[in-house]
Every structure is written in C-alpha cells, then in structure tokens.
Design goal:
The protein is mainly α. The protein is built from four helices and no strands.
C-alpha cells in the first residue's frame, strides 16, 4: 500500500507525513511506545507538536525548518503579522495570510470581536479568542493595564 494523505493509525498525522517527514509508523499511533501519540510528540523540541508542524508545513525533526536562525514557533511564514504559535492560539492557519478570507490579514482579524486585533491581543498578553481574558467583567479593549485611568 502506498503512502497517502489518510491517517491509517489515527494519530493525527497523514501516512505521507509519517513516511516522509516525521519518520514514524503509519501503522502505530505511538511509534516509540512512550504513551504519547505520534501526532502529539515534539521530537525537535520547538514546542510545536508533530500535528501542528504538519499543518504549518514545517519539518518536525528541525526546530528551525528553513535554517534562518528563527525557531519555527516564532516564524511568520505567511507574513500576516502572527507567529506560528500565535496563529494556532488564535485559531488561524499558519500558512494562509487570510484564514477566513475576509480581506484582512490574520494579524488584523478580531477573532473574539472585542475591538482588538489579534496582533494587539498578543502584544497586550490577552487572548485573541476570549473578549475578557482575565474574566473580571471588563473587556480586553477596555482594560487599564498601566493603571493610569485610561483604557489601553
């Protein structure tokens, strides 16, 4: 049977990815039998699972897939203003500059509709998926982070 894009063992990785990229078994969910499914493993220790590396078209065996000195998690491969890890946190696609096809780059999107763009949310250390990250009843856009009496 040739490798295909299907996931024969149900570990979250396509057969093709397992054969040519992660070098894990397409017949076993946990190739190394350590109790962690192959899709959740992180052999290059870049803090991106194999499943995320597959979705981002990265090399799961290299923390810096393109060898430019920037760790894969910190790359902005689609040039939309968000790093790979930020794309996943926001529910965006790290290889699509405009995941929802609304004409705005993913960094400009406001996924949680709180009035803050995704890029701004990450700069402010708030969640782009939750309108009131700290659940204090004040929306992220209305928070006074520096306690100067002005929302910021």
């Amino acid at each position: 049977m040739g490798a295909s894009s299907t996931d024969r063992d149900g570990d979250g990785l396509s057969n093709r990815f397992e054969l040519y990229k992660s070098h894990t078994s397409m017949y076993r969910r946990d190739t190394d039998r350590d109790g962690i499914r192959d899709g959740q493993e992180d052999p290059d220790r870049d803090r991106l699972s194999n499943t995320k590396e597959q979705k981002a078209h990265l090399d799961p065996l290299r923390a810096d897939s393109d060898r430019d000195g920037i760790n894969d998690r910190n790359e902005d491969n689609d040039h939309d203003g968000l790093t790979t890890v930020q794309e996943f946190a926001a529910g965006e696609n790290p290889v699509d500059v405009d995941t929802d096809n609304d004409g705005l780059h993913d960094g400009q999107d406001d996924v949680d509709c709180d009035g803050l763009e995704n890029e701004t949310e990450f700069d402010a250390h708030t969640s782009p998926r939750v309108g009131d990250t700290d659940h204090d009843g004040v929306g992220d856009a209305d928070e006074d982070r520096d306690a100067d009496g002005v929302s910021n």
